[in-house]
Amino acid sequence: MGHPHLPTTESAVTAIREIARAENREMTVTDDIGADQTSRRTSSGAFAVLDPDGSLPHEAFVELGGSPAVSVQLFPEDDAKIHVDGVEFADVPRDSVPAFLRSVYGGLAHVTAKGRFWPSGWWLVVPLPGDESYKELVLRGTLTPWLSSRVR
């Protein structure tokens, strides 16, 4: 299922801000603008602010208050890394970030035990509208109270 297109990092931050407001959560944003500031810029020369194509890359780190602990790192390459109570979801498309957060805050995210061999692993599953879902392993011993409350 398609998600509304978020063409820029700033448009994604605005969408996250609306979700934070609707969920009554505090939000802090740290912006890094320029090729010399963003974390993934290896193709730009030393002390270069612009990318070779003349664009000004923008990266943002967003922290949302409350439980679960959520942070979102938005990259200029149209993807994001989302942490939910210590579980990292890498390479989430920027357009999927709002739906991902709505799923977490809407109670759709859950933890399941999965595996054929003992001990089985715990997986945090975040379903999105349509047939899309994200699953990541919860490391042994890191089942937080919020994650424990989502076990199915």
Explain this structure.
The structure is a single chain. The chain is built from three helices and eight strands. Helix 1 packs parallel to helix 2. The model has no long low-confidence stretch (mean pLDDT 84). It has helices spanning 9-22, 97-105, 145-148, and strands spanning 27-33, 58-64, 70-74, 79-84, 87-93, 110-114, 121-127, 133-138. The chain is an alpha+beta fold. It is globular and about 50 Å long.
Give descriptors for this structure:
single chain; 152 residues; alpha+beta; 3-stranded antiparallel β-sheet; 8 strands; 33% strand
Put the structure in a nutshell.
With 152 residues, this protein is of the alpha+beta class. 18% of the residues lie in helices and 33% in strands.
Radius of gyration: 17 Å
| Total helical elements | 3
Beta-strand segment tally: 8
Helicity range = 10-25%
Sequence of strands across the biggest β-sheet: 1-2-3-4-5
Topology:
Blueprint: H1 9-22, E1 27-33, E2 58-64, E3 70-74, E4 79-84, E5 87-93, H2 97-105, E6 110-114, E7 121-127, E8 133-138, H3 145-148
Helix pairs in contact: 1-2
